[in-house]
Amino acid sequence: MESPSYKRRRRNGECERCRCHRAKKKKKHLYLVVDDWKGGYSIHKLDADDNSMEHRLPEHGALRLASSPERAPMAFAALGTNIFIATNPRCSRHRAPPFLAYDTEAAALTVGPPPPDGHLRDLGEAVAAGGKLYALTFFWNEVRHSSSLQVLSWEPTTDQQEAWDPSMEWSWDTLPAPAPYTEGEVITSYALHPDGRTIFMSTDWRTHSLDTGGNGVGAWRDLGEWTLPFRGQAYFDAELDAWVGLHYKEDGYICCCPVASRSATTTTAQQQSECKILEEKLFRRCGEEKFPYGRYLSATLTYMGDSKFCLVESVLRSKNALDAVLHVTVFGLKYDHKRELKTKAHRTTRFYGLSKNTLLFSHAAFWM
Questions:
Q1: Which end is more exposed in the chain, N or C (fewer Cβ atoms within 10 Å of the end residue's Cβ)?
Q2: In terms of DSSP H, where are the helices of the chain?
């Protein structure tokens, strides 16, 4: 294990299109994606500093997306100031509609590229690094299943023919090295190294890293039979000098662990022994006393910078209805004098009631 001090703010190297580096810092917002109207999905723009006790989301979101009820749920991923939308992620490339790109700064929706080859699933493992979005796709035939990593980036147009044709566009590319996963494997957790270019991905029993920059671009490394102690995405925080995420046991706790080495192998026992679990339980699970008649759908953790996080939990009000409650909790983390993980004094929680259309989609949350 190695955990060098990364106290300085790392630069993400985002592309100009993503507008991540600018002289004047603009206020960021929480963008919450829900299926809260009969015709499809809404993207709501929320002020994280608003302490009002409003129990309903705005009647009209920043963006509405129409969706046929017969389709599979839409999938969402973020890169820079853009939210990318796969309107029908279960369709293969030749039948699928193109991606949509919602620019949150311009409040504008544009048509993006066609989806990449292969099966995208729900974009649940998509990771932004170095101004690009990396997403796993899966292929299968009569002989075997295979996977590859697709890269979405803002690049010069390759087939510009007329003066009015755009000179830049979003496009997908495939990394030459195949990903070390099969269709049956599930990515349980993933995190970006503070170097801004190395992605860690864990399945149920082992972990791989991917170098997305420098001379090792596209090179996968098998790190051995150990796993990250998280569920879903974890985030590096410089003040804590650690990755932070939802605990892998799905028991309602937040945890952190030292940053793993980009090359050396370790063990799950070592990783878990160095994991610090927040004693305070920040969210509930299905069947607990707070929701004895409801059904837990999902919880997500979003990093807001400077040891500040947003936890969004979706719970159905009852077992046989689609009325749901979203719990949005904004909190900070710190170490106490014993180096134990604690929440900071100020914490806010808001509740939003909404009517859902499907149990196959919970929500998505982005800070930008």
A1: N
A2: 268-273
Give the whole-angstrom CA distance, residue 197 versus residue 13: 9
User: Which phi and psi (to 5°) does residue 268 adopt?
Assistant: -60, -40
Domain ranges of the chain: 27-184+278-367, 185-277
Cβ atoms of 333 and 307 within 8 Å: the answer is yes
Q: Record the tokens describing residue 47, joined without a space.
A: 């002020």
For every residue of 21-36, which 3-state class applies, written as one string?
CCCCCCCCCEEEEEEE
Query: Can you tell me the distance from the alpha carbon of 297 to that of 293, in angstroms, rounded to the nearest whole number?
Result: 13
Whether 190 and 199 have beta carbons less than 8 Å apart is answered as yes
In angstroms, rounded to a whole number, what is the distance separating the alpha carbons of residues 196 and 11?
Answer: 8
pLDDT band at 10 (very low <50, low <70, confident <90, very high): very low
- Cα atoms in the 13 Å half-sphere on the side-chain side of 208: 17
259 with 193: CB under 8 angstroms? yes
How are beta strands 189-192 and 230-237 bridged, if at all?
parallel
Q: Collapsing DSSP states into helix, strand and coil, what is residue 124?
A: coil
- Tens digits of residue pLDDT in 95-106: 778 899 999 999
* Number of alpha helices (DSSP H) and beta strands (DSSP E) in the chain: 1, 25
The answer to whether 177 touches 220, Cβ cutoff 8 Å, is: yes
In 3D space, the residue among 295, 265, 280 whose CA is nearest the CA of residue 349 turns out to be 280
Closest CA to 32 of 324, 322, 277: 324
Residues pairing with 134 in the sheet? 127, 151
pLDDT single digits (tens) 204-246: 989 999 999 865 567 899 998 899 999 999 999 999 999 999 9
Are 39 and 74 a contacting pair, CB within 8 Å?
no
* C-alpha closest to that of 235 among 196, 262, 208: 196
Length of the chain: 368
The 10s digit of each residue's pLDDT in 339-348 is 999 999 888 9
